[in-house]
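re: ur msg from earlier - yeah i can do the coenzyme A complex, just paste it... oh wait u already did. ok heres what im feeding in:
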Amino acid sequence: MDLALIGEGGHSKVIKDLIGSKPGYKIRAVLDDKYEQLQLVGDVYRGPISSAHDLAEQISSLKFVIGIGGNRVRKTIADRLGLASDSYMTLIHDSAIVSPSASIGVGSVIMAYTIVNADVVIGDHAIINSGAIVEHDSYVGDYVHIAPKALLTGSVAAHEGAMIGAGATIIPGKRMGEWATVGAGATVIHDIPAYRTAVGTPARTIAESS
Ligand SMILES: CC(C)(COP(=O)(O)OP(=O)(O)OC[C@H]1O[C@@H](n2cnc3c(N)ncnc32)[C@H](O)[C@@H]1OP(=O)(O)O)[C@@H](O)C(=O)NCCC(=O)NCCS
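and the outut:
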């Protein structure tokens, strides 16, 4: 499997290790806007994100992963590139436990020691980060980030772009609106409306964005 990793920050390091742990998977390109032009360095192409289209033409088997933790940045890049959805790879660490009845969208990454249980639906370009648990019947929208060790109990919904901070717990049936943020360590016992940031136990709104 030939892969192009978009982004070269902290999150992409973890994805790089995930890819490295999978036999037959190889990083053929790393794209980041710190590079001015596309060039072959050793056996890996390095270049700006805009060179994705040229690369896709050169290497027809190439699949992309956007390895950037910021939800808005991932969405901006995916929108800007406009690549077909089958250009993106879904990555699942071998230590993850994923129910056969779960579905996971393109470009999403399921990190080490995660659990994705029965009838979970995960959208595109989402991150289920190290040790997170997404319990049965939960919904994780496009561009959502479930941070390390966060827990979505049963039938939780985290809509597009929501960020669930490290170690946060969402009790059953609660809804995180689009682009809502839940602080690290929070316990969410009420729905969090779209664009709100909520922290603490029980989680309370501290800010609203647009
Ligand atoms: C919630 C969060 C996004 C807020 O960030 P911010 O907008 O920069 O907020 P600030 O740091 O200015 O804090 C604002 C207030 O909220 C409080 N606060 C911030 N995060 C909090 C948290 N997780 N739990 C409890 N209180 C928190 C601060 O103490 C501060 O309170 P004060 O005004 O009484 O001093 C951030 O603190 C957070 O928890 N992010 C999650 C990070 C994470 O898990 N990343 C995963 C990476 S893989």
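cool cool. The chain has a mean pLDDT of 98. ping me if u need the other ligands too
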